[in-house]
Inverse folding.
């Protein structure tokens, strides 16, 4: 399951702005996007990932993604940072 990847990642950037910066800087290994997040926000990220050649994995919900990151609130997207 993809949540395990998030939990095991050594370094994450959580949230839209932070994840976007990580991808733009070429430091993202993979990006996890919640299916229930606002498409106006996620579509920009998905397009950026395609352009940068970063894998995008969709997960069921913002709540579960936030939980996998160890935070109490939902997360629309999370980037796994390259070591």
């Amino acid at each position: 399951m993809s949540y395990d990847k998030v939990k095991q990642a050594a370094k994450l950037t959580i949230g839209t702005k932070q994840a976007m910066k990580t991808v733009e800087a070429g430091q993202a290994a993979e990006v996890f996007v919640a299916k229930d997040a606002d498409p106006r926000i996620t579509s920009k990220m998905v397009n950026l990932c395609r352009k940068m050649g970063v894998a995008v994995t969709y997960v069921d919900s913002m709540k579960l993604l936030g939980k996998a990151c160890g935070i109490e609130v939902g997360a629309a997207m999370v980037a796994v940072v390259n070591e």
Q: What stands out?
A: The first strand starts at residue 12 and ends at 14.
